[in-house]
Amino acid sequence: MNNERIGKLLDEFNTFGYTENGMHRITYTKEEKLAKEFFKKKSEELGMDVRFDSVGNVIARREGIDHSLPAIAVGSHIDTVYNGGKYDGLIGVIAGLEIIEMLEEEGIQTFHPIEVIAFTCEESSRFNFSTLGSKAMTGDLKQSDITQLKDRDNISLQEALKRQNLELENIHLAKREEKEIKAFFELHIEQGNRLIENNKTVGIVDGIAAPLRVSLTIEGKSAHSGTTSMEKRQDALLAAAELALEVEKAAVVERKQSTVATVGVMDVLPGAINIVPGLVNLKIDIRSTDVNSRNRVWKKVSDKVEQLEKHRNVKVVIEWKSEEVPVMMDKTIVHSLSELCENMNIEYMTMPSGAGHDSMNMSKRWPTGLIFIPSLDGLSHHPEEFTKLEDISTGIKLLKEVVLSYAMQCSKKEKKL
Ligand SMILES: [Zn+2]
């Protein structure tokens, strides 16, 4: 393990999209493209074959002894949010390159090929659509979901792709066959506080939480703030405030399940200082890896809605409700990673991920492992995002061992399994 080399590679990648206000390596821009080209160059220097797929993911491959075996893939994304940090995503790509470099130095030839994948468009910042690259790779992409996408400058996804010599109509060609990959591993920063709070260096993710989202409108009655008595009011904002507090209360009792709930949007209408609010639009996001826990929160929130309709004389309309299915990570991989941590004396904990990752999609098709390393102060999607080099190094060591344990299984042994 060469910490100096990892630090240097991190700095080199972060010249692409660097600004005074954080990283701007936004998907399908010149900066992201330059970083992809740099990844290609580095991979080729390590003797790998590199290709861009039809959505713009970059796949670098180190052949194994047995060409007929499926690849062990590692990777993450190299795009960032606006005003982003230097570690989110990138660490997982650098980890892949470092592993290959170590294998070269140690003269290790694996039975299985190893692939390092730099996914594109993981962040939803530009097109309000996340993990496009990995969704295309697993084939979980509906063309109709992406044809209308536009960025804040009104540039369509189609146009942005065109500028990168890619065609929207060809995105589906990025789909890979199940037999091409044996397992996928991602190293990522935690983007939260739990590892540091628990004094751990590694988090082994056992599940990725998915949101239940509800958009609702509370209809009261607008009225003059000076002439309407307190008893006569149908104040939509006060009902919304009570509901928001209930969202918090319901989630707090589910803390064992790591369930979280947020009211992130509250639009108050008509929005004047001298008018009792008549209408509020409220958006609620409830996340957990445990669907029952998530449902319990929603049940309490909807019971509260009924109460509010009676006691505050408002009408509550649910505009829409969406439920995504949480993803559980491969149990065998979680077990292997735990065992490796014990053998390697790494302080670890198993934990759910509150945020989505490329692993979430990959795990629907291939056995997948996701490893977290600490983020200072839990900061992420922020210019001051920081992870210690020694923690990155520990994460890479673990990743290397798990990759080797899969890549060194010869075909005979596999048939027996
Ligand atoms: Zn990320």
Automatic annotation (TrEMBL):
Domain of life: Bacteria
Pfam families per record: M20_dimer, Peptidase_M20
Keywords: Hydrolase
Alphabetized PANTHER family for the sequence: ALLANTOATE AMIDOHYDROLASE, ALLANTOATE DEIMINASE-RELATED
InterPro entries documented for this protein: Amidase_Cbmase, ArgE/DapE_CS, Bact_exopeptidase_dim_dom, Peptidase_M20, Peptidase_M20_dimer
UniProt family annotation: Belongs to the peptidase M20 family.
SUPFAM superfamilies (UniProt xref): Bacterial exopeptidase dimerisation domain (SSF55031), Zn-dependent exopeptidases (SSF53187)
Name of the protein described by the UniProt record: M20 family metallo-hydrolase
Source organism: Metabacillus halosaccharovorans
Residue span(s) of domain Peptidase M20 dimerisation: 214-311
